[in-house]
Amino acid sequence: MAIPSFIDRVTLHVAGGSGGHGVASVHREKFKPLGGPDGGNGGHGGDVILRVAADVTTLIDYHHEPRRAGGKGMPGAGSNRSGANGADLVLPVPDGTVVKDEATGEELADLVGVGTEIVIAAGGRGGLGNAALASSKRKAPGFALKGEPGDELVVTLELKVVADIGLVGFPSAGKSSLIAALSRARPKIADYPFTTLVPNLGVVTAGEVTFTVADVPGLIEGASEGKGLGHDFLRHIERCAALVHVIDCATVEPGRDPLTDLDIIENELAQYAAATETDLLDRPRLVALNKTDVPDAAEIAEFVRADLVARGLRVFDVSAASHAGLRELGFAMADIVSARRAAEPDAPPTRIVLRPRADSGVDAEFTVHRRGPEDAPQWVVRGEKTTRWVRQTDFSNDEAVGFLADRLNRLGVEDKLLTLGARAGDDVIIGGSGPEDDGAVVFDFDPQTPAGAEVLGPRGGDLRFDENDRRTNRERRESLEARRQREAEAREARESQSDDEYFVGPDGTEVEVHDLDEEYDGDEVVETDVDQEADSR
């Protein structure tokens, strides 16, 4: 099986690198029991970038390896050390590559000009460590944010050759020979149909004008419907300033003549232009009657010249073998190219415009819609922020969940749900994507209730630094002195009362026991049977 060397259409799976996770860490040092949070942030994931390179003419590399991904960000570490960013992945593509979304068919970019680039899949942002999450109200966060996954996309890369002049014609009409005679290009040339399997490019200089010429592999009748090779390569003439019909005047095939060949090719171009909504029919046209070095071909060219001129076409008798007429054809093509370049306005300088995604208000940053039965409704919350926050949350950490609830509440999600009629106990789905809610998390709606980490305060707060139960030295001395005084008073009472006994309870109160018919069991005074105790003795 032959291995293709020219690929002009591929499907590419790209994924940005995922961001590294932040880390929750506490500074530890001798004589500093509360050193504070020092967890570092995770590194950002690497982007996937498509960039036009001068030395790349085919998409064959992506035909063999259709899956590409950026580098992953490294996780953070203690001592405020951030993780390393993932490496960007730069994919070189040929000049004239069109990038489309495989799912929707939307054109994402038209890469023309060496150095032009686009970030096709952005890497995920790294998660924040607990040092970055600390604030005056949350002095020692016990959680960190997770890194975000990078963008994932399936795109189609289509190569449309950037050429000024396009050569079209039947197989073996001499298009490759014409390019070889006009330029230094050396395409494969043979005397059998469909010798040319890929578009060829040649650089031609006529006077002070330099331009490029491309040929489309042989067109036949029905090419616009997929017959032959022309259907796959007609896109390569969409950028051309003019088309040159190369007509074989020396053909001996039955039913072939210059006028019939021209009508067939024109019809195929018209059908392709209608299907793709391009303006091929409005391009200037030249006719090159080729192989006029053959006597019979010269006579045929002279016979059809008047009809072609009557159609408003400029006609040139040329021979790729003897180079006859090539100079005149080259200057005619240069005139068309110069006129087009002069008519094109100067490209304005690139202006960076930042446009907010929402007009105004917090409600525009997310949407809420209801689904499911009346007795068990589900509320689906969609939005870029909410989805990103859910991905960043470590749901095994109650404090992190409380932090998420606090962010959603500030954004206005809870108020919006109440406005729409959500009731306690309803399912709230947040963070999903697609019709199946991929990656979504389901919560039980419980408005106006602190969420998680209640011991540390509502919604991820931290009360450990607000409450202090440790006694000072003065308070300890006063407590010890009061205890000693109570013990002394109890001792004096026992010595002055012969029939009564006093015990000091655990709370420092005195308990009196009369006539040995009561005893103190540590909690209360209970009566005892004196005679029974005597009998037992």
Automatic annotation (TrEMBL):
Keyword match Cytoplasm: yes
Cofactor(s) named in the record: Mg(2+)
Protein localization: Cytoplasm
Residue ranges, compositional bias (Low complexity): 77-87
Superkingdom as given in the UniProt entry: Bacteria
Alphabetized SUPFAM superfamilies for the sequence: Obg GTP-binding protein C-terminal domain (SSF102741), Obg GTP-binding protein N-terminal domain (SSF82051), P-loop containing nucleoside triphosphate hydrolases (SSF52540)
Keywords: Cytoplasm, GTP-binding, Hydrolase, Magnesium, Metal-binding, Nucleotide-binding
Compositionally skewed regions (Acidic residues) per UniProt: 515-537
Positions that bind GTP: 169-176, 194-198, 215-218, 290-293, 319-321
EC numbers for this chain: 3.6.5.-
Ranges where the OBG-type G domain occurs: 163-338
Domain Obg span(s) in chain numbering: 4-162
InterPro entries listed in its UniProt record: G_OBG (IPR031167), GTP-bd (IPR006073), GTP-bd_Obg/CgtA (IPR014100), GTP-bd_prot_GTP1/OBG_C_sf (IPR036346), GTP1-OBG_CS (IPR006074), GTP1_OBG_dom (IPR006169), GTP1_OBG_dom_sf (IPR036726), OBG_GTPase (IPR045086)
Annotated segments matching region Disordered: 65-87, 452-537
Basic and acidic residues bias locations: 461-497
Positions of the OCT domain: 358-447
Keyword Hydrolase tagged: yes
Record Gene3D superfamilies: GTP-binding protein OBG, C-terminal domain, GTP1/OBG domain, P-loop containing nucleotide triphosphate hydrolases
Major place of residence: cytoplasm
PANTHER family the UniProt entry points to: DEVELOPMENTALLY REGULATED GTP-BINDING PROTEIN-RELATED (PTHR11702), MITOCHONDRIAL RIBOSOME-ASSOCIATED GTPASE 2 (PTHR11702:SF31)
Summary of subunit composition and partner proteins: Monomer.
Function, in words: An essential GTPase which binds GTP, GDP and possibly (p)ppGpp with moderate affinity, with high nucleotide exchange rates and a fairly low GTP hydrolysis rate. Plays a role in control of the cell cycle, stress response, ribosome biogenesis and in those bacteria that undergo differentiation, in morphogenesis control.
UniProt-recorded name of the protein: GTPase Obg
Source species of the chain: Aeromicrobium alkaliterrae
